[in-house]
Write a structure and sequence with these properties.
With 170 residues, this protein is α/β, with parallel strands linked by helices. Helix content is 27%, strand content 31%. It has a 6-stranded mixed β-sheet with strand order 5-4-1-6-10-7, with helices on both faces. Strands 2-3 form a two-stranded antiparallel sheet. A two-stranded antiparallel sheet has the order 8-9. The longest helix has 11 residues, at 30-40. 28% of the residues are buried.
């Protein structure tokens, strides 16, 4: 499989001063935590880093990348950045991961890859534990039953050609 690591966002919900993926935590940039997991997975043949050209200096500052890593500039929307990354992918499967999600583990990757043996595309989901409220048009507030609610996270895995075809149609 190949991994696409998305770093091209603008971090608008993070005050927009700096793309959060370049924030340093324990002497490592946030995205490096995910990069290291993919780098250390021998099943991962290629890691495509999709970045914003305005952040090029931050990306390459104080980092030595492995020979698995290739780079491309992202698009104006997430799906366009994924599509740019897919141009450099030629493996059967691809995992798309947000660089702002550092808590990826080898077991999550393995679960996604195993699920791809029986499914065309898969996504990581975590049951919602927070209380969810819905404000109705008349101002009343209802509590939503969360028994069947999940937050969707990354990596998202897919058969590469299927994802390329789908995004090209968009």
């Amino acid at each position: 499989y190949s991994a696409i690591l998305l770093l091209a966002g603008r971090s608008t919900r993070f005050n927009g001063e700096i793309n959060k993926v370049y924030m340093t935590i324990n002497q490592k940039k946030l995205f490096q935590y995910s990069l290291d997991v993919f780098n250390n997975d021998e099943k991962c043949e290629k890691i495509v880093i999709v970045y914003n050209e305005h952040d090029k200096k931050l990306l390459f500052e104080n980092i030595d990348f492995s020979n698995k890593v290739v780079y491309t500039i992202g698009g104006s929307e997430r799906y366009l950045s994924v599509l740019k990354g897919l141009e450099l992918v030629n493996t059967e499967y691809v995992l798309v991961h947000d660089g702002a999600r550092p808590l990826i583990s080898q077991s999550i990757i393995d679960n996604v890859l195993n699920s791809l043996e029986e499914n065309d595309c898969v996504s990581v989901g975590v049951p919602i534990t927070d209380t969810i409220k819905k404000v109705n048009n008349n101002g009343t507030i209802d509590t939503i039953c969360r028994d069947n609610l999940y937050t969707v996270q990354t990596p998202q895995g897919c058969k590469t050609q299927l994802l390329k075809n789908a995004l090209n149609k968009v």
